[in-house]
Write the structure tokens for this entry.
Amino acid sequence: MYHDELLSSLHESTAVKLLQSNNAPLTLGFLYDQFKRKQRVTIPQSELTEALTAYLELLVDTHAGLYGATAVTYLRIWCDDTHRFLRRYYESGSDDPVYELTPDTERTIAWVEELQKSDFIGTESRFLRIFDLLQEIVTYSTEDVTVRLAQLEKDKADIQSQIDVIKATGAIEQYSQTQIKERFFEANDVSRRLLADFREVEANFSAMALQVQKQQVAGGVRKGQIVGQVLDADAMLKESDQGRSFYAFWEFLISPQRQDELQELLTAVYRLPDLQKIESTQGQRLRRLKRNLIDAAAKIVESNRRLGEKLRKLLDEQNLAEARRVMELAVEIKQTAVSLIPHPPVEKEFFFLEAAPAVDMPLERPLWTPPVNVSYTDIDLESADADLSTANLEALFNQFYVDESRLCRYIAALLDKKGTATLGEVTAVYPLTQGLAELVAYAVIASRDEGHQIDETGWEELKLAENGRVVRLPLIIFGKEL
């Protein structure tokens, strides 16, 4: 880092502008609360405007006159070309624009987070992680078979030694409470940086889209050149170190087996007694890790799709422009030809046809296909009996509707009294009136909302009042959304 480079970077950096702005506490505090503390990647404009209005009203009591603009004004300023603290765009199929943090804002928030004094700083796990990384580099970078086999034999001996100790003593080595917390907070920190890095990857795809738009307005560029440049840029990005790493991660993430494995690990970690009392935002970041990773990675894939869409529109526009130009040239040729004839000759019949000619193109003739002969001699037809009695038709007409909003009110009323409630506790206070269909509706609500969970390791039996049958289903726990 040289003086002139630093001078230019500090003058043009959006992150520095954000830190130097008079409204930095407002901007960083509000964006951190909405995006980081609540762990969201995008937020609709209507929701973000309402939240910012409430945030400004809260600051009026303690900082009167400091922030005089409206929420709409602040959001517009944060998105303009001068500031670029937020990115505003429309998602497909939605009329309400959404906002997301820019890469510079992500870096600024991460830097401010690191300024905060941490109550717990782990050193053992970080050193061991460095040691393991160095060991992996040495092991997997060598082409010497002897070295690789020696390392594997050493690992095998270590594992066998641990097995022998466990068989001999019956005791297993466990992490202490400090070691568990140290590794847990390190995992949270890595997940925070990983989600922030996705903005940089998405910015690269956006730069490619901008390159396509610049090629579109440039004159004298052929379609083949534009397509070639875009495909070369796309291939270059995928073949880069960053591109290879992302697409390897994406293949890992879209695997249902890996997703289930990740979710099982997160569930097991948060059930540990040593981590039950951690209520900080940092400690809860891993809880929504799978959903946040999928959302962030899907946005990058969507950026790539939009790049292809821009290319298609570009080619369509050029095709229309060329067709329009051809028509204009044809009209000019006709006008020029007519102007060169001082006295048009009298039209005479040169060739006469009694009827319109029939044009048969060779490629229009269909290929010969053998005829299909269908025989019904070997098929025995049986007459069907339809029972249209009143008893059978009652089941068709006596349909009912399960009101999910009523069930949600039952759940909310019980959660106001206690933090969590099982499905059995809900039905005990609000008995089932529509039988099995009502149970299915409760299960749909539990799988759809983030605050609820379905524990497939536990079971619960519920009795249906209508016929006395007992239904055994996975344990459904309702809770307030984090």
User: Anything to note?
Assistant: The first strand starts at residue 43 and ends at 44. The mean pLDDT is 76. The two ends are 43 Å apart (CA to CA). The beta strands are 43-44, 86-89, 98-101, 420-422, 453-463, 470-479.
